[in-house]
């Protein structure tokens, strides 16, 4: 058992869920415990506290690293929510479910943006549907109006990195400011990926490392959706492709994306 579990007096049998790249993640009864070798767990705690997130519990330092405790969120990720659509079961119920999930995700992102925050690393597993709530999680990279510990942000997961962010990563070694427009692209990419099971960028070397993938993302080399979609879904496709516009100023806001999805919902 990790010594921090006893130090924090967490009751229950710990379940190790994740341990890589300096991050360790436990589930202990109804508590999620994240431990990082650097500041990121504590930074996420600062963001959650500033947002008044109801699943936040506490955070602090541990040796050279930081920790964060949260109520365990028992929900379904965007990836899993769109699983039936990926398998091609074309029914009115499936189409309603896809549009409902996409609308909820866009509305949750719009709420985050309305508070002056941007996520910076949105991906399918970072949107979770819990009962009637839609939660945007893993906010360690978030930037917003409240001072939180600084780190040099260099983008998130490649597959959901917006083209302008990919270009900035390639062009500079400086800190990259996150934007609502980049978050919208990341959300649309998460919808595309969850539905087709293929990231939106048509990589010349899909097995390449992150650095190899970034030039194709920056250039906007996207898949032909008709070639990779599990079934034709024009209303959903049109809104999703709007969010995947290459130029940031051509994308809708998260709020507008949600409104467009509500319009096309049956």
Number of helices: 11
**End-to-end distance, in Å?**
50 Å
Number of distinct beta strands: 8
| Mean pLDDT score | 95
| Relative strand content | 15-25%
Helix content: 40-55%
The rough form would be described as globular
Structural class: alpha+beta
Kindly provide the radius of gyration, computed on alpha-carbon positions and rounded to a whole number of angstroms. 19 Å
N-to-C SSE string, H for helix and E for strand = HEEEHEEEHHHEEHHHHHH
* Main beta-sheet annotation: 5 strands, antiparallel
Please mark out the parts with pLDDT under 50 across 5 or more consecutive residues, or reply none. Answer: none
Strand order of the largest sheet: 1-2-3-5-4
Report on this model:
The protein is α+β, with helices and mostly antiparallel strands and about 270 residues long. About 40% of the residues lie in helices and about 15% in strands. It has helices spanning about 5, 40-50, 80, 85, 90-115, 165-170, 180-195, 210-220, 225-230, 235-245, 255-265, and strands spanning about 15-20, 25-30, 30-35, 55-60, 65-70, 75, 125-130, 135. Strands 1-2-3-5-4 form a five-stranded antiparallel sheet, with helices on one face. A hairpin with a 2-residue loop joins strand 2 and strand 3 (about 30-35). The mean pLDDT is about 95.
